[in-house]
What we know:
globular
Amino acid sequence: MHFELEPISPEDAVESYLEEKQSxxxxxxxxxxxxxxxxxxxxxxxxxxxxxxxxxxRDLHRYRLWxxxxxxxxxxxxxxxMDTIRVFIRWCESIDAVHTDLSTKVISPSLSIGENSRDVMxxxxxxxxxxxxxxxxxxASERHVCFRLMWRAALRRGAVVALDVEDYDAxxxxxxxxxxxxxxxxxxxxxxxERFIAxxxxxCSVLDAWIGHRRPSxxxxxGRDPLLSTPQGRAHPTTIQTYMYxxxxxxxxxxxxxxGLEIEQCKPATDRTHASKCPSSVSPHALRRGAxxxxxxxxxxxxxxSDRANVSPEILKTHYDRRSxxxxxxxxxxxxxxx
Length: 339
């Protein structure tokens, strides 16, 4: 059966698509989708394309080449961009905005093993040095609490932001991670991200000291008491990112710059808000990847790691497990002595 296409501008299509996906995607995912689709809107503007109806496979191929060159994209980034376009075009098919099966003509790069995941991570040795430094010089500070939770519990940045004081149970030595989108703290995996996390004696001692003596007694805009608070209220995700960049720069724990710079004259070294400019500092995600890899290397069963870190077994293997094949073999050897 032939359906007449209904004219729609690229801008209206993107807005309608994102509006429909609001209930399906987490806020961070929506922002990422909007960012990628904004590039498509820019291309449409450059091409004077005001109606999506005539869009063809050849057009989408030209968009792919334009986006690759415009963004200087690596294969993994290009794949992410084009996969988003494919899903968007498939949605456009469902509302008769483009020709049927146009989404099958969206070409996305095929990646080699390892190309779709980054290898940057914080090693266990580096993490322990950072913890020792923070425990000695910044005990129960905001950076100490944040780093310890992200290393020992492999919490995502958004989960750290979402924690309230009441989510910490000192008697049970646990944290409850909750999805609370109505009051501004959604979790990446929504209700599926909710869980209890067991804590060690040492982590509880740090949290007790933070809550009892150092935590700014502020509430957020909804009246909740954030666990990781600032004098202005709940810590923002970018604040968490700043904490992590600032504690992972090597000069913090070694007093030396691996890049041969004078620390006193290095802005990333002297100003934590510029720490992300240090070539050796890393993002919160690299810390999470390192924690998960450390757990796996320590023979923690994969289902336990999957549940504690709230990541599917498939994603765990593809994006987080940085053990080499030989390391995995040596771990298996311990179970095979009698075979």
